[in-house]
Design a protein that fits this description.
The complex is a heterotrimer. By secondary structure, chain A is mainly alpha-helical. Chain A has 11 helices and 4 strands. The radius of gyration of chain A is 22 Å and the shape is elongated. By secondary structure, chain B is α+β, with helices and mostly antiparallel strands. Chain B has helices at about 20-30, 40-45, 85-90, 90-95, 100-105, 110-115, 120-125, 130, 175-180, 195-200, 280-285, 295-305, 315-330; strands at about 10-15, 35, 55-60, 70, 75-80, 185-190, 190-195, 220-225, 230-240, 250-260, 260-270, 280. In chain B, helix 11 (about 280-285) packs antiparallel against helix 12 (about 295-305) and helix 12 (about 295-305) runs antiparallel to helix 13. At the B-C interface, helix 13 of B face strand 1, helix 3, helix 9, strand 30 and helix 21 of C.
């Protein structure tokens, strides 16, 4: 299997023009294999561990996990991402429709969403909550062992975001930013009212790599979305999915999964606070 | 790797005697197969070694799709392998569909019309010289339109319907068939499908690598013309740089149904301004109920070019389209 | 008396073969063990070959050898062009050649070769190259000099002052002046001034320059397609690095050259050298695609002219500036010819000519049918129309006022013409066309169509002297006219033999023309260029025939008594005046000559013959009665032919399309040798000119430097439907007094006449508005009529 699509440019130079579309199927197959493998290997264990009454004292019944802004970002991103992936890849696999305009408009919306997210993160949220530190690494190791069936290991509790979520975030961030930056450049090659046509802004080889990066990121996102959706519907994770819909988690989930030392109540705020907006 | 042109590379040649065999071969070879009709488009590609199919399926012996017969609904049924000369000179076509006879008779040269087929003329690939030079443009699977840049030589290219690619449909008979509301019969191993002519052509927004709905394995076998309008007026004009062996800069095909001095119905199609023959729906709607006068033509011309956008060197196509649409109403006979 | 053949229609001896397909052109020949070669062309407009990997190609079965540039015999130094190069200066320039058992294999082998190129700066537009910091087409400079390239850059202020629509005019490379132009402008009643672009176009002969070569016993046999024959041998010898005596060149038929195949073409070196290298005959079939690159082109001009007139229509001042696009090897001197030809149209009282020949990375230029002449006629004639309108002088009249008479002069040295029946030609053409009535139709509108009428007057050089004629009467009694000239399709191999028939008073059927193969003992001749052939070789054959008559008379006198002056030559006999029976038939004369030897059978030849002719006669010696003579007829002045073409067009204001309704041409080309051939040459040239003005194009992508008009259908030379089916034609038919037959050439001047007539007629239909460029296509006309943005900048080239 070729990883790149290459062509001879008008001067007979062999240049990359994009990523091989075969990789779409590779991403789908790997994604499916991951889902099936994970579903078979990892028990669907809903955590019902006892909660520590001391810790529970003074906590509201519902704790805010995702603010409206954060949820807005997430769902806006998911809608634009699905639009982007569908418009990008369905035509390639034979489901044809006029896709370019939808694709770049969705891309522009995604960029706006990302800009909002960055603003939101810096202005309203604690940037460091998504940072992977030493405790996350430890948490990850133990979590992995627990997942692999080492029953004697008690899964450690996470901060606001479990380490696997953080890792997903970072990989998705790289793929998204890669696609976004290259996508903006590619808009110089399609007719749109935001950027002037400038087909020859870069040389052929540079353009080729821009298309390759865009393709790799896009195809990577296929896999990430498959994995993300899969975890979202895993029974033991559904409470997190719900929290992305309604914003809050209940006190029990909080104490079972989160380490109050790493994600303190005060920081967590309350469901009531959410109503006031962020 | 060095490039060489004007030298047909070897291929395996099949000469089926029937549609069934032809589509079976096409199915077998998929995108490695190439359907050969008159060869006027084909051999340009082969000579330049840009298209290099493994198998060529020559339809020369498929007699069942050659010739002109009376159609079921009072029209004509034309085999896709019928030569353009036969169409231009056929009494029935000249009598009932002079628009098509005229369009077919203006293709290229007498030699090319003898060799070229109606099917081939309809499904021929664009003549964009960037694409035809074998450059890796969008249409060739690449990531660039060389013709649409600010420095490109795009006098012959699009003013409407562009989507990354700015190539135009070069066919003379295609706009005539759309104006005549013809149907295209397509056969593949999975059966027969029929498309209205207007739906048969697709733009780069749908598929940047094709100009028609035909996919590998699909064979255009027949073109079915419905019974002509009573008292129809028609107009066809092809503007080109030379009077022979030249593709159109802009062409117009129109059918007007005029009763009591008033346009009852109309089909107006302009080609070589977009990647597909452009049916001027807004124009047709606007002229219904009006006289086919200079004023109506003037108005129609203005409507026809609404939204048209010129590239670096083809602004004249806007004026030309406007004027040809005007003529096609004013001068229809 | 045999019927005088000059001035009658005949069928030339090659006609039947051409029509029936029996004629064999270069690529129709085969030789024992022949193999095929294919070229690898440069993909870049300017590059250097860093390395070549031929290993995969050489490993292919059937590949016999590869020829690189370094293996060619050393050609001339400096700006010279070779058949192959490691520094390609245009996209499509041949890099190497591969020989293989068949073309399929050779093509596959070329595809398997990897060439590593280093890109170099390139330029398509001469003005870009003249800018400070602009790219140079060559590593050694951007402007042509005397045998070498120099560098010329103009300061930015020159470009800034000119703006986008006027030719920037910095320091020229060449300049000459007649009189005081500035003073003349001060006194002029009317001054017209325009920036004008004339395009470059490729030659597109029907037959590409295919070539087959093989070696036998150290001798090179080469079948090629050239305009000349005897004069091709030397250039082939230089290409192969051998002596001319070791070359046999065969080219009986040539499918057109138009100046691109004058005496051998660089690509001939490939089969010549490759066949020696691999020891097999090599055929190099040039394809239409390759012909587009190596087949030569006309030099393009970006020009500017200011012309001043007195109130009576006399041109008092002509100021001309031409920037020439000469391709990478700059072999065309069109721009300088243009200045000279301008004087032959208008005889301006004062004139300044300035020019710069610039190199570009586009395929090489060479002469193309009226090089420089066609361009300048097409550029200036519409301006003269514009002035005529302002002056209120009839457009035909203004040309008659300014045209040269027999006392006319040519060029910066203001030398004389041999004859100039220009006003007669203008009158004749005006009458034939019906100028007086038709010029009344100017601007008349019928529906969407507007009538325009126009005319163009086009001079060009039409002769040369000092060539040799070689005639043999063999024992079969026939006259063999050995022609060193080539058969480029103009009938001149036959037409220039006619004076021999007439001088000998011999029936045309008894004349055999020997041509097209240098082993057939051909005399020194002109190159077939510059419309010299008819003039030069009617003279040479006239001289040889006159010598032959003398030999026949001497022979008869020595055989039958009396003095040579007592004998007459007529209808295949030499006989005592008044008594046909007392004489010898040509067959008997040939036998006698062979017996007598010496001067009669070619053992002794006149000293003033060219060495090539002497060698030819030596090869024939003893085979009959042989006469060879040099053209020593006196001549004073430049030989020029003028053609006037008149056109009536209809311009559709809704589409910009132009239909030529009527065409008529007249010429002063001296004595008419062959009316049908003359009409063919004139009308063909007019059509070629119209094509350049109307539809033909040579379009390049400016970003990549690659042309698109590589096929007939994209290059769009005119077709027969683009011109009226019955163009009319007339000739003044007054003999040139400086030449015994009175004939001048005709090949070239019609091109400019057709071009100018078209341009002037279109301007006329547009109310006198000159768009001042070629090609003038319907899109440009429509944009102007509709007041829409111009499709191209006024100085843009290759559109």
């Amino acid at each position: 299997m070729e990883f790149l699509r290459r062509a001879l440019n008008p001067w007979g130079e062999n240049v990359p023009i994009g990523v091989s579309w075969d990789l779409i199927w590779a991403a789908v197959i790997i994604g499916a294999a991951f889902v099936v493998g994970h579903a078979l290997l990892v028990p669907k264990k809903v955590d019902t561990g006892e909660i520590d009454e001391d810790e529970a004292r003074g906590l509201p019944a519902k704790l805010l996990r995702h603010t409206t802004g954060a949820r807005g970002f997430h769902w806006s991103m998911s809608v634009t991402m699905f639009a982007l992936l569908i418009t990008a890849f369905f035509p390639v696999i034979g489901i044809q429709f006029p896709w370019v305009t939808i694709h770049w408009i969705a891309g522009v919306l995604l960029i706006l969403t990302v800009i909002y997210h960055i603003y939101h993160v810096f202005a309203k949220q604690d940037f460091w909550t998504m940072w992977i530190d030493r405790r996350d690494v430890e948490e990850g190791k133990l979590g992995l062992k627990a997942a692999m069936g080492q029953a004697d290991i008690e899964r450690p509790r996470a901060g606001k975001y479990p380490v696997d979520q953080k890792m997903f975030h970072h990989v998705a961030m790289i793929a998204t930013l890669g696609a976004v930056v290259t996508g903006v450049l590619m808009m110089f090659r399609v007719d749109n009212f935001l950027l002037p046509m400038n087909t020859y802004m870069f040389g052929d080889t540079a353009w080729g790599w821009i298309y390759v990066i865009h393709g790799v990121c896009g195809i990577g996102l296929i896999f990430l979305v498959i994995a993300h959706v899969y975890f979202a519907i895993r029974p033991e994770k559904r409470w997190m999915t719900w929290s992305m819909i309604n914003g809050w988690i209940d006190r029990e989930r909080y104490l079972q999964n989160h380490d109050p030392a790493r994600w303190t109540v005060a920081e967590a705020g309350s469901a009531a606070a959410d109503a006031e907006g962020d | 790797m060095a490039v060489i042109r004007d030298m047909i590379p070897p291929f395996e040649l099949f000469q089926p005697a029937g549609v069934d065999d032809a589509v079976r071969l096409m199915d077998q070879y998929g995108d490695q197969g190439w359907v050969l009709a008159g060869g006027l488009d084909t051999f340009d590609w082969f000579k330049d070694r840009i298209k290099r199919p493994a198998a060529v399926i020559d339809l020369a012996a498929v007699d069942e799709i050659r010739g002109i017969a009376d159609g079921a609904s009072g029209g004509l049924d034309i085999g896709a392998m019928t030569s353009l000369t036969d169409i231009a000179e056929h009494g029935g076509v000249q009598g009932a569909y002079p628009l098509l006879a005229e369009a077919a008779g203006l293709v290229a040269t007498p030699q090319i019309r003898n060799q070229g087929t109606l099917g081939g003329n309809i499904v021929q690939d664009t003549r964009c010289w960037y694409y035809r030079s074998g450059w890796p443009c969008y249409r060739a699977g690449g990531n660039i339109c060389y013709a649409g840049t600010r420095r490109s030589m795009n006098r012959e290219h699009c003013i409407v319907g562009a989507d990354r690619c700015v190539a135009v449909n070069p066919s003379d008979t295609a706009p005539a068939l759309v104006a005549l509301d013809a149907e295209m019969v397509v056969v593949s191993t999975s059966g027969e499908r029929t498309f209205a002519a207007t739906d048969f052509f697709i733009g780069p927004d749908i598929d940047i690598e094709r100009m028609t709905v035909l996919e590998p394995g699909d064979l255009l076998t027949r073109i079915v013309l419905p019974a002509p309008w009573e008292g129809a007026r028609w107009y066809f004009e092809k503007i080109r740089d030379r009077k022979s062996w030249d593709f159109s800069l802009v062409s117009v095909a129109s059918m007007l149904q005029v009763q009591g001095g008033v346009i009852q119905d109309a089909r107006i199609v302009v080609n070589s301004i977009a990647p597909y023959p452009v049916r001027m729906g807004a124009v047709e709607a606007a002229i219904r109920g009006r006289e086919p006068s200079d004023e109506t033509g003037q108005m129609a011309g203005e409507i026809a070019v609404e939204g048209a956008r010129a590239l670096r060197h083809n602004d004249y196509k806007i004026a030309l389209t406007r004027n040809l649409v005007k003529r096609s109403i004013r001068d229809a006979a | 008396m045999a019927e005088n053949v000059i001035g009658t229609d005949i069928s030339p001896p090659d006609l039947r073969a051409k029509i029936t397909g029996r004629a064999r052109y270069a690529e129709d020949f085969r030789a024992e063990g022949m193999v095929f070669a294919k070229l690898l062309l440069s993909p870049m407009p300017h590059a250097r070959v860093r390395s070549v990997d031929t290993s995969r190609a050489e490993a292919m079965e059937g590949v016999l050898g590869i020829l690189r540039a370094s293996e060619l015999p050393q050609q001339e130094q400096g700006i010279g062009e070779a058949a192959l190069t490691d520094e390609p200066k245009y996209e499509g320039e041949p890099i190497l050649a591969v020989a293989a058992v068949d073309e399929t294999t050779a093509a596959a082998a070329v595809e398997a070769i990897r060439v590593d190129f280093e890109q170099l700066p390139f330029v398509l537009d001469p003005l870009e190259s003249l800018r400070e910091g602009g790219p140079d087409a060559r590593l050694d400079g951007n402007v042509g000099g005397r045998g070498e390239a120099t560098t010329l850059k103009w300061p930015n202020s020159v470009f800034d002052e000119a703006g986008p629509d006027r030719l920037p005019m910095g320091e020229p490379a060449t300049e000459w002046t007649i009189g005081d132009v500035d003073a003349a402008f001060d006194e002029a009643a009317v001054i017209v001034e325009e920036t004008i672009v004339h395009q470059s176009v490729t030659h597109h002969p029907m037959e590409p320059r295919s070539c087959m070569a093989y070696w036998q016993n150290g001798k090179l046999f080469l079948h090629g397609s050239t305009q000349s024959t005897e004069r091709t041998r030397g250039s082939v010898a230089r290409m192969a690095g051998v002596e001319a005596d070791d070359v046999v060149f065969i080219g009986e038929y040539c499918g057109g050259g138009f100046g691109s195949k004058i005496s051998g073409v660089p690509s001939m070196a490939v089969p010549a050298v490759l066949s020696r290298k691999i020891g097999r005959p090599v055929m190099l079939r040039i394809t239409r695609y390759e012909e587009n690159y190596i087949g030569r082109a006309r030099a393009g001009f970006q020009g500017w002219a200011r012309i001043g007139f007195r109130g009576d229509g006399r041109m008092t001042a002509l100021d001309l500036y031409i920037v020439q696009d000469g391709g990478p090897y700059g072999r065309a001197s069109d721009f300088s010819t243009a200045g000279t030809v301008a004087t032959a149209i208008y005889q301006p009282e004062n004139m300044r000519f300035q020019g710069v020949p610039v190199y570009t990375n586009t395929p090489p230029r060479s002469a193309q049918r009226a090089p420089g002449g066609a361009q300048i006629v097409a550029m200036l004639e519409p301006l003269v129309d514009k002035a005529a309108r302002e002056l209120g002088v009839d457009r035909l009249e203004i040309r008659k006022i300014n045209a040269p008479g027999h006392d006319g002069w040519l060029g910066p040295n203001q030398g004389p013409f041999t004859s100039a029946y220009v006003r007669e030609a203008l009158d004749l053409g005006g009458e034939l066309f019906g100028w007086e009535e038709k010029s009344q139709l100017s601007g008349q509108r019928n529906g969407t169509k507007v009538t325009g009428v126009g005319m163009g007057l086009s001079p060009f050089t039409a002769g040369s002297t000092g060539r040799d004629g070689l005639l043999v009467i063999r024992p079969d009694g026939k006259l063999y006219v050995h022609q060193g000239i080539g058969n480029l399709g103009t009938h001149s191999i036959a037409d220039t033999a006619r004076p021999a028939a007439d001088v000998l008073d011999l029936a045309w059927d008894d004349v055999v023309i020997v041509w097209g193969d240098t082993s057939k003992h051909l005399p020194f001749s002109t190159v077939q260029a510059g419309s010299q052939t008819t003039h030069a070789h009617t003279r040479a054959n006239h001289a040889a025939a006159t010598a032959l008559v003398g030999l026949l008379q001497e022979l008869a006198a020595s055989e039958l008594g009396g003095s040579p002056g007592d004998y007459r030559v007529s209808e295949g006999r030499v006989f005592r005046a008044g008594n046909r029976a007392a004489g010898l038939s040509f067959a008997q004369a040939a036998e006698r000559a062979m017996a007598m030897g010496g001067r009669f059978s070619g053992e002794v030849v006149p000293e003033d013959l060219n060495d090539a002719t002497k060698a030819a006669v030596a090869g024939l010696a003893g085979e009959g009665l042989i006469a060879a003579a040099r053209d020593n007829y006196p001549q004073a002045g430049a030989v020029f032919t003028w053609v006037a073409t008149f056109a009536q067009i209809e311009l559709d204001v809704e589409t910009g399309e132009v239909e030529i309704v009527d065409l008529a041409s007249s010429t002063d080309c001296g004595t008419v040798m062959h009316p049908r051939s003359l009409a063919g040459q004139t009308n063909g040239g007019v059509f070629q000119g119209i094509g350049m003005a109307k539809s033909q194009r040579w379009v390049f992508d400016p970003k990549w430097g690659i042309p698109f008009t590589k096929r007939f259908y994209t290059a769009r030379p005119p077709g027969i439907l683009d011109v009226p089916l019955s163009p009319r034609f007339a000739a003044v038919n007054e003999p040139d007094p400086h030449t015994p037959v009175g004939a001048k050439g005709i090949g070239e001047p019609p091109v400019g006449a057709g071009e100018a007539a078209y341009a002037c007629a279109v301007a006329d239909a547009m109310g006198g508005l000159c768009l001042c460029r070629t090609p003038l296509t319907s899109d440009m006309i429509l944009a102007e009529l509709e007041g829409r943005p111009r499709p191209y900048g006024l100085l843009d080239t290759h559109v």
